[in-house]
Amino acid sequence: MQSGYAAILCVLAVLGLEAAAPGECELTRLLQDKLQYEMRLQYMKHYFPINYKVQVQYEEVLRPSNITRLRNRTVSEAALRYLWFHVSSQAVLRIHEVLPEKHPSWKYTQELCQLFDALGKEYSKYRQTDVETVVADLVKLVQSDGVESRRKAVRPKALLDNCLKVMQMLYRVPCEW
Prior knowledge:
Helix content is about 70%, strand content about 5%.
């Protein structure tokens, strides 16, 4: 009888570990929930001064048109997701860095950063050699904080709008939202 309980506990422990480590699709689903229009509007527009802009690198603004252009150059979907992750996580981090801890949007951006950190663990399994050169170069530009990079002033809401639009383009079919 006790061995039966032990087997059930083992199964529950394994299921608990699986639930504690959500995969890429589950994390993007959670991100989509966090990036709902009402939340982006409230936390990234209403809680910021009028016309407030964050200084980001030119490469940190990833729009759907950029993805379409890269797709036309036959860049793989996996490489595009890798690029989206790096650009979006860096953009969220830039927004989070300018906020004082008592700002109403601080906790929201902290939660987004945590989701991107968890997604980063999923992408750490991805081999760097599988990434096309054009994407690898863009990721290096985003990760470097060099002087040679051009800067651009962008509204925080616009950064998250782009993040969501590109995510929906890249994850629509495999994750079946």
